[in-house]
Protein backbone atom coordinates (compact mmCIF):
# COMPACT_ATOMS: atom_id res chain seq x y z
CA UNK A 1 0.00 0.00 0.00
CA UNK A 2 2.83 2.37 0.81
CA UNK A 3 4.40 1.69 -2.61
CA UNK A 4 1.20 2.78 -4.41
CA UNK A 5 1.06 6.00 -2.35
CA UNK A 6 4.67 6.89 -3.22
CA UNK A 7 4.06 6.18 -6.88
CA UNK A 8 1.01 8.47 -6.84
CA UNK A 9 2.99 11.32 -5.21
CA UNK A 10 5.81 11.07 -7.77
CA UNK A 11 3.32 11.09 -10.60
CA UNK A 12 1.61 14.19 -9.21
CA UNK A 13 4.95 16.01 -8.91
CA UNK A 14 5.79 15.17 -12.52
CA UNK A 15 2.45 16.53 -13.76
CA UNK A 16 2.90 19.81 -11.82
CA UNK A 17 6.45 20.37 -13.13
CA UNK A 18 5.30 19.69 -16.69
CA UNK A 19 2.50 22.29 -16.38
CA UNK A 20 4.86 24.97 -14.98
CA UNK A 21 7.38 24.44 -17.81
CA UNK A 22 4.61 24.86 -20.38
CA UNK A 23 3.55 28.14 -18.73
CA UNK A 24 7.13 29.47 -18.88
CA UNK A 25 7.34 28.62 -22.55
CA UNK A 26 4.08 30.39 -23.31
CA UNK A 27 5.23 33.49 -21.35
CA UNK A 28 8.51 33.62 -23.29
CA UNK A 29 6.59 33.36 -26.54
CA UNK A 30 4.31 36.24 -25.49
CA UNK A 31 7.32 38.38 -24.50
CA UNK A 32 9.06 37.70 -27.79
CA UNK A 33 5.95 38.51 -29.77
CA UNK A 34 5.38 41.76 -27.83
CA UNK A 35 9.00 42.78 -28.35
CA UNK A 36 8.71 42.06 -32.06
CA UNK A 37 5.51 44.08 -32.26
CA UNK A 38 7.18 46.94 -30.39
CA UNK A 39 10.11 46.89 -32.79
CA UNK A 40 7.68 46.88 -35.70
CA UNK A 41 5.93 49.92 -34.22
CA UNK A 42 9.24 51.72 -33.84
CA UNK A 43 10.21 50.86 -37.39
CA UNK A 44 6.82 52.03 -38.65
CA UNK A 45 7.46 55.41 -36.97
CA UNK A 46 5.12 55.29 -34.01
CA UNK A 47 5.49 58.76 -32.46
CA UNK A 48 4.71 57.49 -28.97
CA UNK A 49 7.43 54.82 -29.07
CA UNK A 50 9.95 57.15 -30.70
CA UNK A 51 9.47 59.65 -27.94
CA UNK A 52 10.82 57.21 -25.36
CA UNK A 53 13.42 55.54 -27.58
CA UNK A 54 15.06 58.78 -28.73
CA UNK A 55 18.10 59.99 -26.78
CA UNK A 56 18.12 63.54 -25.38
CA UNK A 57 19.40 66.10 -27.85
CA UNK A 58 22.77 67.63 -27.08
CA UNK A 59 21.64 70.94 -28.51
CA UNK A 60 19.46 71.69 -25.48
CA UNK A 61 21.17 74.65 -23.78
CA UNK A 62 18.87 75.12 -20.79
CA UNK A 63 20.83 72.72 -18.61
CA UNK A 64 23.64 74.30 -16.60
CA UNK A 65 25.94 71.31 -17.22
CA UNK A 66 27.00 72.33 -20.77
CA UNK A 67 27.72 75.83 -19.46
CA UNK A 68 30.08 74.46 -16.82
CA UNK A 69 31.78 72.20 -19.34
CA UNK A 70 32.38 75.16 -21.64
CA UNK A 71 34.08 77.20 -18.95
CA UNK A 72 36.12 74.28 -17.66
CA UNK A 73 37.98 74.38 -20.98
CA UNK A 74 38.21 78.15 -21.30
CA UNK A 75 40.91 80.36 -19.86
CA UNK A 76 38.75 83.48 -19.99
CA UNK A 77 35.08 84.52 -20.15
CA UNK A 78 33.22 84.44 -23.43
CA UNK A 79 32.10 87.59 -25.18
CA UNK A 80 28.53 87.35 -26.48
CA UNK A 81 28.40 87.90 -30.23
CA UNK A 82 25.89 90.74 -30.21
CA UNK A 83 26.31 94.50 -30.60
CA UNK A 84 26.50 96.63 -27.52
CA UNK A 85 23.56 98.89 -26.73
CA UNK A 86 24.13 102.60 -26.33
CA UNK A 87 21.92 105.16 -24.61
CA UNK A 88 22.44 108.55 -26.21
CA UNK A 89 22.35 111.52 -23.89
CA UNK A 90 20.89 114.93 -24.59
CA UNK A 91 23.16 117.66 -25.90
CA UNK A 92 24.14 120.77 -24.01
CA UNK A 93 24.34 121.66 -20.33
CA UNK A 94 22.16 119.17 -18.47
CA UNK A 95 21.01 121.76 -15.93
CA UNK A 96 19.71 123.97 -18.74
CA UNK A 97 17.96 121.01 -20.36
CA UNK A 98 16.27 120.21 -17.06
CA UNK A 99 15.12 123.76 -16.33
CA UNK A 100 13.77 124.20 -19.87
CA UNK A 101 11.63 121.07 -19.49
CA UNK A 102 9.76 121.99 -16.31
CA UNK A 103 5.96 121.95 -16.62
CA UNK A 104 4.69 122.26 -13.04
CA UNK A 105 5.64 125.90 -12.40
CA UNK A 106 2.05 126.72 -11.39
CA UNK A 107 2.74 124.94 -8.08
CA UNK A 108 6.11 126.59 -7.34
CA UNK A 109 4.65 129.46 -5.29
CA UNK A 110 2.77 127.30 -2.80
CA UNK A 111 3.76 127.81 0.82
CA UNK A 112 4.65 124.10 1.18
CA UNK A 113 7.20 124.52 -1.59
CA UNK A 114 8.50 127.74 -0.05
CA UNK A 115 9.22 125.91 3.20
CA UNK A 116 11.39 123.37 1.38
CA UNK A 117 13.17 126.08 -0.61
CA UNK A 118 14.28 127.66 2.66
CA UNK A 119 15.99 124.39 3.58
CA UNK A 120 17.90 124.28 0.29
CA UNK A 121 18.94 127.91 0.25
CA UNK A 122 22.73 128.38 0.59
CA UNK A 123 23.16 124.64 1.22
CA UNK A 124 26.29 124.36 -0.90
CA UNK A 125 27.51 121.10 0.67
CA UNK A 126 24.33 119.29 -0.32
CA UNK A 127 24.48 120.53 -3.89
CA UNK A 128 28.17 119.63 -4.14
CA UNK A 129 27.25 116.05 -3.26
CA UNK A 130 24.45 116.02 -5.81
CA UNK A 131 26.69 117.41 -8.55
CA UNK A 132 29.38 114.83 -7.83
CA UNK A 133 26.89 111.99 -8.27
CA UNK A 134 24.97 113.67 -11.08
CA UNK A 135 27.81 113.45 -13.59
CA UNK A 136 27.48 109.65 -13.60
CA UNK A 137 23.71 109.20 -13.81
CA UNK A 138 21.76 112.40 -14.44
CA UNK A 139 22.50 112.74 -18.19
CA UNK A 140 21.08 109.27 -18.79
CA UNK A 141 18.03 109.90 -16.60
CA UNK A 142 17.28 113.22 -18.29
CA UNK A 143 17.60 111.57 -21.70
CA UNK A 144 15.08 108.85 -20.81
CA UNK A 145 12.63 111.37 -19.32
CA UNK A 146 12.89 113.47 -22.45
CA UNK A 147 12.36 110.47 -24.73
CA UNK A 148 9.09 109.65 -22.98
CA UNK A 149 7.86 113.23 -23.05
CA UNK A 150 7.49 113.44 -19.27
CA UNK A 151 7.76 116.60 -17.14
CA UNK A 152 11.40 117.25 -16.34
CA UNK A 153 10.52 117.45 -12.65
CA UNK A 154 10.46 113.64 -12.84
CA UNK A 155 14.23 113.66 -13.45
CA UNK A 156 14.67 115.26 -10.02
CA UNK A 157 12.91 112.44 -8.21
CA UNK A 158 16.09 110.33 -7.76
CA UNK A 159 17.78 113.39 -6.23
CA UNK A 160 15.14 113.53 -3.51
CA UNK A 161 15.00 109.74 -3.14
CA UNK A 162 18.70 108.88 -2.92
CA UNK A 163 20.80 111.98 -3.69
CA UNK A 164 21.66 110.09 -6.90
CA UNK A 165 23.42 107.38 -4.92
CA UNK A 166 22.70 103.82 -6.18
CA UNK A 167 24.04 102.36 -2.92
CA UNK A 168 21.51 104.22 -0.76
CA UNK A 169 19.34 102.05 1.54
CA UNK A 170 16.32 103.28 3.48
CA UNK A 171 14.82 102.05 6.75
CA UNK A 172 12.22 100.08 4.77
CA UNK A 173 14.96 98.33 2.75
CA UNK A 174 14.37 100.47 -0.35
CA UNK A 175 17.49 100.54 -2.53
CA UNK A 176 18.99 102.22 -5.55
CA UNK A 177 18.62 105.55 -7.31
CA UNK A 178 14.84 105.19 -7.37
CA UNK A 179 14.52 103.52 -3.94
CA UNK A 180 12.43 100.50 -4.85
CA UNK A 181 11.23 98.32 -2.01
CA UNK A 182 11.52 94.56 -2.70
CA UNK A 183 7.81 93.98 -3.43
CA UNK A 184 7.47 96.82 -5.95
CA UNK A 185 10.81 95.95 -7.50
CA UNK A 186 9.62 92.38 -8.05
CA UNK A 187 6.58 93.68 -9.98
CA UNK A 188 8.90 95.55 -12.34
CA UNK A 189 11.39 92.68 -12.79
CA UNK A 190 13.99 94.00 -10.38
CA UNK A 191 15.25 90.90 -8.59
CA UNK A 192 17.98 90.27 -6.06
CA UNK A 193 20.11 87.30 -5.04
CA UNK A 194 23.53 86.41 -3.69
CA UNK A 195 25.22 87.90 -6.76
CA UNK A 196 23.22 90.95 -7.82
CA UNK A 197 20.52 93.41 -6.81
CA UNK A 198 18.71 94.82 -9.83
CA UNK A 199 17.35 97.71 -7.80
CA UNK A 200 20.89 99.14 -7.84
CA UNK A 201 21.17 98.68 -11.61
CA UNK A 202 21.32 102.18 -13.13
CA UNK A 203 19.69 101.25 -16.44
CA UNK A 204 17.05 98.80 -15.27
CA UNK A 205 15.96 100.75 -12.19
CA UNK A 206 15.55 103.93 -14.24
CA UNK A 207 13.38 102.14 -16.78
CA UNK A 208 11.34 100.58 -13.98
CA UNK A 209 10.97 103.88 -12.12
CA UNK A 210 9.67 105.68 -15.19
CA UNK A 211 7.34 102.79 -16.01
CA UNK A 212 5.93 102.93 -12.50
CA UNK A 213 5.41 106.70 -12.64
CA UNK A 214 3.64 106.46 -15.99
CA UNK A 215 1.34 103.80 -14.56
CA UNK A 216 0.57 106.00 -11.56
CA UNK A 217 -0.18 108.94 -13.84
CA UNK A 218 -2.60 106.78 -15.83
CA UNK A 219 -4.24 105.86 -12.53
CA UNK A 220 -4.62 109.38 -11.08
CA UNK A 221 -4.38 111.69 -14.10
CA UNK A 222 -2.19 114.21 -12.26
CA UNK A 223 1.57 114.31 -11.81
CA UNK A 224 1.42 115.64 -8.25
CA UNK A 225 -0.77 112.71 -7.23
CA UNK A 226 1.43 110.29 -9.21
CA UNK A 227 4.58 111.46 -7.45
CA UNK A 228 2.84 111.36 -4.08
CA UNK A 229 1.71 107.80 -4.79
CA UNK A 230 5.29 106.89 -5.76
CA UNK A 231 6.34 107.77 -2.22
CA UNK A 232 3.34 106.73 -0.13
CA UNK A 233 1.82 104.08 -2.36
CA UNK A 234 -1.30 104.36 -4.51
CA UNK A 235 -3.45 102.89 -1.74
CA UNK A 236 -2.53 105.76 0.60
CA UNK A 237 -3.55 108.36 -1.97
CA UNK A 238 -6.79 106.57 -2.86
CA UNK A 239 -7.86 106.23 0.78
CA UNK A 240 -7.17 109.91 1.40
CA UNK A 241 -9.17 110.84 -1.70
CA UNK A 242 -12.16 108.74 -0.61
CA UNK A 243 -12.05 110.36 2.81
CA UNK A 244 -12.08 113.83 1.26
CA UNK A 245 -14.92 112.85 -1.06
CA UNK A 246 -17.06 111.80 1.90
CA UNK A 247 -16.31 115.16 3.55
CA UNK A 248 -16.99 117.17 0.41
CA UNK A 249 -13.39 118.40 0.12
CA UNK A 250 -11.11 118.53 -2.92
CA UNK A 251 -9.20 115.41 -3.89
CA UNK A 252 -6.06 117.01 -5.36
CA UNK A 253 -2.68 116.27 -3.82
CA UNK A 254 -2.50 119.55 -1.89
CA UNK A 255 -5.83 118.91 -0.13
CA UNK A 256 -5.13 115.37 1.07
CA UNK A 257 -4.30 114.41 4.65
CA UNK A 258 -1.45 111.92 4.34
CA UNK A 259 1.67 111.03 6.26
CA UNK A 260 4.22 113.80 6.75
CA UNK A 261 6.80 112.20 4.46
CA UNK A 262 4.31 111.90 1.61
CA UNK A 263 2.93 115.37 2.33
CA UNK A 264 6.41 116.90 1.97
CA UNK A 265 7.53 114.73 -0.95
CA UNK A 266 6.20 116.72 -3.91
CA UNK A 267 7.11 120.09 -2.32
CA UNK A 268 10.72 118.84 -2.02
CA UNK A 269 10.83 117.98 -5.73
CA UNK A 270 9.32 121.32 -6.76
CA UNK A 271 11.64 123.21 -4.40
CA UNK A 272 14.60 121.52 -6.05
CA UNK A 273 13.19 122.57 -9.42
CA UNK A 274 12.92 126.19 -8.26
CA UNK A 275 16.54 126.25 -7.13
CA UNK A 276 17.82 124.65 -10.35
CA UNK A 277 15.76 127.13 -12.37
CA UNK A 278 17.50 130.10 -10.73
CA UNK A 279 20.43 128.85 -8.60
CA UNK A 280 22.16 132.19 -8.06
CA UNK A 281 19.04 133.60 -6.41
CA UNK A 282 19.37 130.98 -3.66
CA UNK A 283 23.13 131.15 -3.22
CA UNK A 284 23.85 127.94 -5.15
CA UNK A 285 26.46 127.41 -7.84
CA UNK A 286 25.75 124.73 -10.42
CA UNK A 287 28.79 123.76 -12.41
CA UNK A 288 28.16 123.00 -16.12
CA UNK A 289 27.25 119.34 -16.55
CA UNK A 290 27.96 117.95 -19.99
CA UNK A 291 26.09 115.14 -21.64
CA UNK A 292 27.49 111.61 -21.71
CA UNK A 293 26.40 108.38 -23.36
CA UNK A 294 26.22 105.05 -21.58
CA UNK A 295 26.66 101.71 -23.33
CA UNK A 296 26.02 98.12 -22.25
CA UNK A 297 28.55 95.42 -23.10
CA UNK A 298 27.33 91.78 -22.99
CA UNK A 299 29.79 89.35 -21.41
CA UNK A 300 29.25 85.74 -20.32
CA UNK A 301 30.51 85.08 -16.80
CA UNK A 302 32.12 84.18 -14.57
CA UNK A 303 34.41 87.18 -14.69
CA UNK A 304 36.19 89.37 -12.19
CA UNK A 305 34.88 92.93 -11.91
CA UNK A 306 38.42 94.18 -11.39
CA UNK A 307 39.53 92.63 -14.68
CA UNK A 308 36.60 94.17 -16.52
CA UNK A 309 37.47 97.57 -15.05
CA UNK A 310 41.08 97.08 -16.11
CA UNK A 311 39.99 96.22 -19.65
CA UNK A 312 38.16 99.55 -19.79
CA UNK A 313 41.16 101.27 -18.21
CA UNK A 314 39.00 102.64 -15.41
CA UNK A 315 39.56 102.71 -11.70
CA UNK A 316 37.49 100.14 -9.85
CA UNK A 317 35.67 102.90 -7.92
CA UNK A 318 34.54 104.60 -11.11
CA UNK A 319 33.61 101.32 -12.79
CA UNK A 320 31.59 100.24 -9.75
CA UNK A 321 29.58 103.46 -9.82
CA UNK A 322 28.22 102.44 -13.22
CA UNK A 323 27.76 98.79 -12.19
CA UNK A 324 26.49 99.08 -8.65
CA UNK A 325 24.15 96.07 -8.98
CA UNK A 326 26.94 93.54 -8.34
CA UNK A 327 27.34 92.36 -4.77
CA UNK A 328 30.44 90.20 -5.19
CA UNK A 329 33.89 90.68 -6.68
CA UNK A 330 33.07 88.08 -9.35
CA UNK A 331 29.98 87.29 -11.40
CA UNK A 332 28.14 84.00 -11.77
CA UNK A 333 27.65 81.73 -14.80
CA UNK A 334 25.33 83.77 -16.99
CA UNK A 335 25.27 86.71 -19.36
CA UNK A 336 25.96 90.13 -17.85
CA UNK A 337 25.56 93.62 -19.28
CA UNK A 338 28.32 95.87 -18.03
CA UNK A 339 27.61 99.59 -18.20
CA UNK A 340 30.41 101.84 -19.38
CA UNK A 341 30.64 105.44 -20.52
CA UNK A 342 30.90 105.69 -24.27
CA UNK A 343 34.38 107.19 -23.95
CA UNK A 344 35.62 103.82 -22.57
CA UNK A 345 33.69 101.52 -24.88
CA UNK A 346 36.24 101.21 -27.69
CA UNK A 347 39.04 100.73 -25.18
CA UNK A 348 37.14 97.92 -23.50
CA UNK A 349 36.33 96.21 -26.81
CA UNK A 350 39.95 96.31 -27.92
CA UNK A 351 41.43 95.02 -24.66
CA UNK A 352 38.76 92.43 -23.99
CA UNK A 353 39.19 90.89 -27.42
CA UNK A 354 42.81 90.14 -26.53
CA UNK A 355 41.81 88.27 -23.38
CA UNK A 356 40.60 89.39 -20.01
CA UNK A 357 43.61 87.79 -18.32
CA UNK A 358 45.82 90.36 -20.06
CA UNK A 359 43.87 93.28 -18.61
CA UNK A 360 46.05 94.28 -15.68
SSE blueprint:
Elements: H1 2-44, H2 47-53, H3 64-72, E1 78-79, E2 85-87, H4 94-100, H5 111-120, H6 124-147, H7 157-162, H8 182-187, H9 202-220, H10 223-232, H11 234-247, H12 260-277, E3 294-300, H13 305-311, H14 316-322, E4 335-341, H15 342-354
Antiparallel strand pairs: 1-3, 2-3, 3-4
Q: What structural class do helix, strand and pairing data support? A: mainly alpha
Spatial separation of the terminal alpha carbons: 106 Å
- Sequence stretches where pLDDT stays below 50 over 5 or more residues: 27-76, 78-82
Total strand segments: 4
Q: Let me know the largest β-sheet.
A: 4 strands, antiparallel
Shape: flat
* Strand portion: 5-15%
Helix % is 55-70%
How many DSSP H or I helices?
A: 15
Provide the gyration radius in Å.
Answer: 35 Å
- N to C succession of SSEs: HHHEEHHHHHHHHHEHHEH
Mean pLDDT: 82
Quickly list its features.
single chain, 360 residues, four-stranded antiparallel β-sheet
Describe this structure in words.
This protein has 360 residues and is mainly alpha-helical. Helix content is 56%, strand content 5%. It has 15 helices and 4 strands. Strands 1, 2, 3 and 4 form a 4-stranded antiparallel sheet that branches. Helix 9 crosses helix 10. The longest helix has 43 residues, at 2-44. The protein is flat and about 130 Å long. The N and C termini lie far apart (106 Å). Mean pLDDT is 82; it is low at 27-76 and 78-82.
Amino acid sequence: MKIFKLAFIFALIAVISACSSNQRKRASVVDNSSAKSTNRMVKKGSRQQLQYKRKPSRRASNSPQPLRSVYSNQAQPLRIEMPRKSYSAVKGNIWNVISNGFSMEHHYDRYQVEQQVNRLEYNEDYFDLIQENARYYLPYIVSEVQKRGLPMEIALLPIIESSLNPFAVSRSNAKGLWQFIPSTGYIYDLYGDHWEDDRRDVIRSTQAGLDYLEKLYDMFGDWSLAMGAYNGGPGTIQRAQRKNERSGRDTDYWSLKVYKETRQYVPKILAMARVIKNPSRYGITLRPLGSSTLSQHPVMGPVSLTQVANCAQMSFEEFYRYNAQYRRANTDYKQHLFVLPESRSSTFDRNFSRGVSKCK
